[in-house]
UniProtKB/TrEMBL annotation:
Family to which the UniProt record says this protein belongs: Belongs to the copper type II ascorbate-dependent monooxygenase family.
Swiss-Prot/TrEMBL keywords: Copper, Disulfide bond, Endoplasmic reticulum, Glycoprotein, Membrane, Metal-binding, Monooxygenase, Oxidoreductase, Signal, Transmembrane, Transmembrane helix
Protein name: Monooxygenase DBH like 1
Location(s) in or outside the cell: Endoplasmic reticulum membrane
Annotated CDD domains: DOMON_DOH
Domain DOMON: 1-78
GO cellular component terms listed in the entry, alphabetical order: endoplasmic reticulum membrane; extracellular space; secretory granule membrane
A single GO molecular function term of this UniProt record: dopamine beta-monooxygenase activity
InterPro entries xrefs: Cu2_ascorb_mOase-like_C (IPR014784), Cu2_ascorb_mOase_N (IPR000323), Cu2_ascorb_mOase_N_sf (IPR036939), Cu2_monoox_C (IPR024548), DBH-like (IPR000945), DOH_DOMON (IPR045266), DOMON_domain (IPR005018), PHM/PNGase_F_dom_sf (IPR008977)
Length: 543
């Protein structure tokens, strides 16, 4: 039969019934510790299916532990059996795909007979530039009677899977009229329509590599009432690093809904670091950690006023850009750290989707939520700035929860003054409240902007580490937003981050057969799917 391979950065293979691995030279070697067990094998004229099981943690240095993080599954096969001379080269019969093997099962409700509506761009000319954010206003067609959206699916134009990086759907002011529907425009542009400024509340988020999202059976996205979105803004992030000309896009979202109401209305909270130049990462750093705080002050005010019993989080989307390597959402209650709310220690920029939580998590007034992002800038010679481009960075978490309350954003901005002092700035010409501001002294930075001065500073790894330790301790400016551009009273206040143990203390790995009790079915399903797919012509290469 054909040979198959599966694994992560350290490839693990099932070849001729034995466990193999590969090193940095990509040469297959027989693993002296055999941890993979063949459960089932079948071959016909068109397909080869291999089903195997293994423990989640084998404690074999040649194996990759299987966790809730992203796993890069690499497959390769040859049409001929392995001979005495060893394995045959797979040629173009190879590929890779990022997956979450341990995503919890979710109850799927058939949506085949349910009504839906599409929100799609119409022949958008994607500019031949690195990054474009395109905004289009839509009117929800379901009005006058409450319904629940039960599923949202991406509609990505064929061939544009790498062009469309993410899609955000915002709720806008209900006081708009149909004249705002006439045309789309670049977002965050000086000439964009004023109506776009009324759209601040995120109601759904999708990112590259993700699939459709199904709400739990007891929760739905409410539409059709006066409190629900009537006008929505769809923001599409186009990533065109090759500056390709003549691209026309018609991507968007499909919303499937039902008149049979669920028990709870879903809400979305954007948490983490406010996207701004105050978030910055030095060059040449193998690891740099940024933290965005959903502060106890914001949650105390918002939840205390609207939901003292707390909210239930059921899914989280962790979001960063190209320098991102790992993201964790840490949860503190009464100052005590709880289990991680969500994490991805193998973050893949090209695979970002909502993670369903194994168990819903209660967030109470006075809790702290910390979005912790790990970056690698070894290949960069200039500062990396918080911003919209994929070459800029973000550190965000989108929390799906119920019941819906009037809290849309719970984020923070690090204090800027000590960042300036770290590189030796003594005086600026204008108050820090305005941007951009110009440095007055010392002489080497005179008349430079903050960005220019940070780039001029001679960064070493030791300086970068010291800077990282500084920014993690800085007071933060609280962002605590409601719908319709309103703010909770804590907005703009200064708060101190919680006492955080760094690095995060992970659970000890248990190497026993019991660790495989829940893994076998996941791995069997994986093998059947990807080996079958490999025979149908998927030839994505890996290196």
């Amino acid at each position: 039969g054909a040979s198959g391979a599966v694994g992560s950065p350290s490839l693990v293979a099932r070849v001729g019934g034995e466990d193999y691995f590969t090193d940095e030279n990509r040469v297959l070697k027989r693993d002296p510790q055999q941890d993979y067990h063949l459960e089932y094998a079948m071959e016909n004229s068109t397909h080869t299916i291999l089903a195997f099981s293994r423990e989640l943690h084998t404690c074999d240095t040649n194996d990759k532990s299987i966790t809730e993080s992203t796993v890069r599954v690499i497959w390769a096969y040859h049409h001929k059996d392995m001979g005495e001379a060893g394995q045959n080269y797979h040629g173009s019969n190879r590929g890779t795909k990022s997956l979450r093997l341990l995503n919890p099962e979710r109850e799927e409700v058939s949506s085949a007979s349910l009504p839906y509506f599409d929100l799609t761009n119409k022949d958008v000319p994607v500019p031949d530039k690195d990054t474009t954010y395109w905004c289009q206003m839509f009117k929800i067609p379901v009005q006058h009677e409450k319904h629940h959206v039960t599923k949202v699916e991406p509609l990505i134009q064929k061939g544009h899977e790498n062009l469309v990086h993410h899609i955000l759907l915002y709720q806008c002011s209900s006081n708009l009229n149909d004249s705002v529907l006439d045309y789309g425009h670049e977002c965050y542009h000086p000439n964009m329509p004023d109506s776009f400024l009324t759209c601040e509340t995120v109601i759904f988020a999708w990112a590259i590599g993700g699939e459709g999202f199904t709400y739990p059976p007891h929760v739905g996205l409410s539409i059709g009432t006066a409190a629900d979105p009537l006008f929505v803004l769809m923001e599409v992030h186009y990533d065109n690093p090759s500056f390709t000309e003549g691209l026309i896009d018609n991507s968007g979202l499909r919303l499937i809904y039902t008149p049979v109401l669920r028990k709870y209305d879903a809400g979305v909270i954007e948490a983490g670091l406010w996207v701004s130049l105050f978030h910055n990462i030095p060059p040449g750093m193998p690891e740099f950690v940024s933290e965005g705080h959903c502060t106890l002050e914001c949650l105390e005010e918002a939840l205390g006023a609207e939901r003292p019993a707390g909210i239930q989080v059921f899914a989280v989307l962790l979001h960063a850009h190209l320098a991102g390597r790992a993201i964790r959402m840490r949860h503190f209650h009464n100052g005590e750290e709880q289990d991680l709310l969500a994490y991805d220690d193998e973050f893949d920029f090209n695979f970002q989707e909502f993670q369903y939580l194994k168990e819903e998590r209660t967030i109470l007034p006075g809790d702290n939520l910390v979005t912790e992002c790990h970056y690698n800038t070894v290949d960069r010679i200039r500062m990396t700035w918080g911003g919209l481009s994929t070459r800029n960075e973000m550190c965000l978490s989108y929390l799906l929860y119920y019941p819906r309350i009037n809290l849309t954003r719970c984020a923070s901005i690090p204090d800027i003054m000590e960042q300036l002092q770290f590189i030796g700035v003594k005086e600026i010409y204008r108050p820090v409240r305005t941007w951009p501001f110009i440095i007055k002294s010392p002489k080497q930075y005179k008349n430079l902007s903050f960005m220019d001065a940070m780039n001029k500073f001679k960064w070493s790894r030791s300086e970068g580490l010291s800077y990282n330790q500084l920014v993690l301790k800085l007071p933060v400016n609280v962002r605590c937003s409601k719908t319709d551009n309103a703010e909770w009273s804590i907005q703009g206040m200064t708060a101190l981050p919680p006492e955080i143990e760094r690095p995060y203390k992970t659970e000890p790995v248990i190497c026993s057969s019991s660790s495989c009790l829940n893994c076998c079915s996941f791995l069997i399903l994986l093998c059947i799917v990807y080996i079958t797919a490999s025979t149908i012509g998927n030839t994505e290469s890996f290196v």
